[in-house]
Amino acid sequence: MALEPLPLGDTLGFFGLPADLRAAPLGRGLIHRTFTLAQGTSPEYVLQEINTRVFADPGLLDANLRAISAAFRVHHPEAAFVHRSRAPAEQRLYRHPASGRYFRIFPFVTNTVSHDTVSDADTAFEAARQFGLFARRLSCLPIDAIRPSLPRFHDLDLRVAQFERSLREGNPDRIATCAALIQRARAQLGIAEGYRAALASGALIPRLMHHDTKISNVLFDARTGKGICVVDLDTVMPGTLLSDIGDMLRTYVCPVDENHRDLKRHRNPSGGLHRDRGRLSRRDGRRADRRRAGIVRLCRQVHDLHASTALPHRSPQRRRLLRRGVSRTKPRPGGEPAHVA
């Protein structure tokens, strides 16, 4: 389906930007359409069209982002954060009158890069640290200050109910074809019970989380490779640490990004390490074992780092995680990165 032309002139006029800015597609996001705006070769702004088929209430997104932005300005002015560009009358969301489409503009953060996949443990470490810091800083906001942009999207009980209903009412041929997968899924249904029990006991505490912690939602310093800040805050809403940690592990140990169409690469994120061991030489087998062990260590490190960074400094849970060796969660000399925009 052909994409609608971008109403660039009207949008630039609303935001009070020069009419000679030129738009170029940015990234490979699956939800919003995103563009850089530049007069020459150096981008100055990021223009984003909100996908209202996914996020039906752009005003809710706008209100949530205003609340998060205000909290960072007041409580964490030292932290890097990409605040949206102001428009006349303090409006930050533009509704194109002829088409009803919604647009917003952010400053372009220079000297930064983003990644579609994780190539090494240091990159995963930096990303996990940034998401952990973000979660901890969000604790300055009451949990009900942010309204869910995707209601019940992370409701595990709802997903289990939908799964069971699909088995009762779904296409019989498809159900037969997927019998093995269905059996594997059913074997994991106890996770929902454990999750429910953890919430009831207080072992899991509801809090504001990012909920879309893939590697491409972190900006890195182009020179040092250190994490700068997280972006794409439309899915920030109440949840638990498990959601962010799970999404990190889902994407960080996979050799391809989520747009890749070769499902075998997604199913086997360890790069083929689970092949029949009989096909491997002894030396290759040892190498495969080391790589598999490295992935396990990476998963554990991402979990411990994110959790310990997000938890309050004096909490017993954080002290236990730090005793396991997650010592790099302390701020580097010189404090946090400079404020962005």
Explain what you see.
Strand 2 and strand 3 form a beta hairpin. Helix 3 packs parallel to helix 10, helix 8 (241-252) packs antiparallel against helix 10 (282-310) and helix 10 runs antiparallel to helix 11. The chain has a domain at 18-111: Phosphorylase Kinase, domain 1 (2-Layer Sandwich), CATH 3.30.200. The chain is 40% helix and 11% strand. The protein is globular. It has eleven helices and ten strands. The strands form three sheets. It has a five-stranded antiparallel β-sheet with strand order 1-2-3-5-4, with helices on one face. A three-stranded antiparallel β-sheet has the order 6-8-9. The chain has 341 residues and is α+β, with helices and mostly antiparallel strands.
Write the layout of secondary structure elements.
Blueprint: H1 8-15, E1 22-25, E2 33-38, E3 45-49, H2 58-75, E4 94-95, E5 102-107, E6 112-113, H3 121-138, H4 156-169, H5 172-177, H6 179-186, H7 190-201, E7 207-209, E8 218-221, E9 227-230, E10 237-239, H8 241-252, H9 263-267, H10 282-310, H11 316-323
CA-CA gap between termini: 36 Å
Percent of residues in β-strands: 5-15%
Query: What would the average pLDDT be, to the nearest integer?
Result: 79
Order of helices and strands: HEEEHEEEHHHHHEEEEHHHH
Computed structural class: alpha+beta
Would you give the CATH topology of the domain at 18-111? Phosphorylase Kinase, domain 1
Give the biggest sheet.
5 strands, antiparallel
| Name of the CATH architecture of the domain at 18-111 | 2-Layer Sandwich
Radius of gyration: 22 Å
Low-confidence residue ranges: 266-295, 325-341
Please count the helical segments: 11
Question: Strand sequence of the main sheet, in spatial order?
Answer: 1-2-3-5-4
Helix percent band? 40-55%
**CATH class call of the domain at 18-111:** Alpha Beta
Q: What global shape is seen?
A: globular
Q: How many β-strand stretches?
A: 10
